[in-house]
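[Solved] Which block belongs to which protein?

Original post:
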Amino acid sequence: MVNIDIINLYGLWYHSHEEDDSHKKVYRPSTFNFPLSRGIDAFEIRKDGNFVSYNIGPVDVSQENVYQFEIKDENRLCIYKNKILINVMDILSCEKDLLYIKKNLSHHQ
């Protein structure tokens, strides 16, 4: 189990698909020099307890969905909609400019 510094987790994270491997998804802050692409999925973890998902919708328009989150077992990011658990992200590593999330086919990510 990884001990996560919650301060590093707060912020807007963009999925860096090119850096993924078979075991993990890689996320970077907006300051990262991403290669050109049509659209990038992202999420924001806010200090007020909200988790905001930014997904690419029709005609590359970003769709924003607001949920709530809590950290459990020191490294599990649990996402809730109307107090119902809808997703769990297992955090492998979290630094100020790099976030690794374990790939898990049983959870929607």
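(Second protein starts here: sequence line, then its structure tokens.)
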Amino acid sequence: MNTLADADALSGAHLSYLWMLVGADDRIKPDRLILRRLEGGLHRRVTTPETTRLITAAAAQLACTPRELDHAIWKTQRTP
């Protein structure tokens, strides 16, 4: 494996999370907690690409990074 992009075993949320861990502020990890929050707020199903677009747009409006917003949502969803 020469680059992270060559990581065949990683895809989707796992690969996005790995990018986040190495400092990519423009990435989110659209896992079940993030999807659940968006679906609850929108009262409908959302796709992974739509989730990424919505979080990115909301982060721009809130003057934070998508990664920061992802983390804030994740923290609220994992706490009962």
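Accepted answer:
You had them paired correctly. Confirming on the second one: The two ends are 40 Å apart (CA to CA).
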